[in-house]
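We were asked to recover a plausible sequence for a given structure. The inputs and outputs are reproduced exactly as logged, with field labels preserved.

PROBLEM: sequence recovery
POSITIONS: 441
GIVEN STRUCTURE:
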């Protein structure tokens, strides 16, 4: 036990001794923002960093992802997971930025991984440790991603879904992830936070154009159909149960071309979010009814295109206990939130359906997440403190042949079998049209 405790302290001291290099890596990645499935420069930076550790990473996973593993091949595997992609962001040079902090994710997880590797912790304690990066967490640029899917380059639209399909998590007994957050008064970290799941809908209303002044009666107003559909969606809100955390937030991306013509086409887009897969499905059906009602009311046609989003995130309490204990070594208990419930979404929820998973969130940033002002302002808090907490938690989970990680695995109840998960995902790719047929027609 003494030797293990000494090894743990050696790992943390190793990480502390490389603070300057860690900060430099973080800033280098922040200066190379790339969107999903295009993170080629990012992958090159990480591959070079892994090679400097004496490792030869496997590259090209889900197009741009990569991984490297150390420790006995047949030992229980713990994965340190990091997102790679940046976001289209208004008001920044080039229009793309790491406004979700994924550059810090990669830096923190690599720093923790490298400290464990350099101290030979996986070999000495008998566990397998993998550093894995996932492209395309952000649910943006869907048209380009659908083109990649149509070409056979990917099967699914998110990096973690694709990595699940490729079997990257098949041997894992635990997955640990980190996310940046803005500092708030009295709250500088989150452990055991949960997230909503969601699916995406696009509704294309088609009517009939006509001169809006001379003969509007000859047209079918697609904009009116879409407007009625919006009102019908709003009328559903009182039917959503509070505990299901349903969120529906449509936008109208098209609503006509010129004022003098009855709009022949209007387009609504929305996510349907929920804390439970079944509740989300039920809410999605209510949205479909509302979309159909708007079209039928004016005699238009609506084409509803569904795309799978992400599963809700339910963290492993057992992993949360390990990560929480490590976090409290570096922050006072009053500054760590163990009860966060967010209606945002992340494809880490998909991983957590099949493998025990937990995420640590840590401060050091200011501004609004997904905006151009979301930036690291306390560099040590943004990069070094969470890396220390992750390294400590990964070691604690992995020591003695991954005793604690295996206990978390034993307590875990998957929400799907792997086959059922992919069947549910595939079922959400849907495209159908609805129109009014008069009686006797």
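RECOVERED SEQUENCE:
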């Amino acid at each position: 036990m003494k030797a293990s405790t000494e090894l743990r302290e050696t790992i943390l001291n190793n990480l502390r001794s490389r603070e300057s290099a860690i900060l430099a890596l973080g800033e280098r990645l922040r200066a190379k923002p790339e969107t999903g499935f295009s993170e080629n420069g990012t992958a090159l930076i990480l591959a070079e960093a892994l090679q400097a550790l004496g490792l030869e990473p496997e590259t090209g996973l889900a197009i741009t992802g990569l991984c490297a593993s150390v420790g006995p091949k047949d030992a229980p595997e713990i994965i340190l997971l990091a997102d790679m992609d940046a976001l289209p962001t208004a008001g920044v040079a080039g229009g793309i930025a790491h406004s979700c902090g994924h550059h810090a994710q990669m830096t923190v997880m690599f720093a923790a991984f490298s400290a464990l590797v350099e101290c030979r912790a996986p070999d000495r304690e008998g566990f397998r440790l993998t550093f894995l990066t996932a492209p395309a967490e952000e649910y943006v640029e869907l048209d380009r991603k659908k083109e990649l899917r149509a070409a056979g380059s990917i099967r699914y639209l998110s990096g973690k879904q694709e990595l699940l399909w490729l079997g990257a998590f098949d041997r894992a007994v635990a997955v640990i992830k980190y996310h940046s957050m803005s500092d708030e008064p009295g709250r500088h970290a989150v452990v055991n936070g949960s997230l909503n799941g969601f699916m995406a809908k696009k509704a294309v209303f088609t009517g009939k154009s006509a001169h809006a002044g001379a003969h509007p009666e000859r047209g079918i107003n697609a904009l009116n159909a879409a407007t009625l559909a919006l009102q019908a969606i709003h009328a559903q809100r009182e039917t959503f149960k509070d505990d299901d955390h349903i969120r529906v937030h449509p936008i109208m991306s098209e609503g006509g071309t010129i004022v003098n013509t009855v709009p022949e086409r209007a387009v609504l887009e929305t996510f349907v979010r929920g804390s439970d897969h079944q509740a989300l499905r039920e809410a999605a059906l209510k949205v479909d009814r509302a979309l159909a009602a708007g079209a039928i009311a004016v005699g238009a046609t609506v084409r509803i295109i569904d795309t799978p989003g992400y599963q809700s995130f339910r963290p492993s309490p057992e992993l949360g206990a390990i990560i929480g204990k490590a976090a409290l070594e570096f922050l006072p208990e009053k500054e760590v939130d163990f009860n966060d419930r967010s209606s945002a979404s992340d494809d880490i929820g998909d991983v957590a359906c099949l493998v025990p998973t937990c995420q640590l969130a840590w401060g050091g940033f200011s501004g609004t997440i997904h905006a151009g002002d979301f930036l690291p302002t306390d560099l040590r808090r943004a990069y070094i403190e969470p890396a220390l907490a992750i390294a400590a938690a990964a070691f604690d989970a992995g020591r003695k042949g991954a005793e604690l990680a295996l206990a978390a695995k034993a307590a875990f109840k998957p929400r799907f079998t792997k086959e059922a998960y992919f069947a549910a995902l595939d079922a959400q790719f849907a495209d159908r049209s609805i129109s009014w047929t008069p009686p006797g027609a």
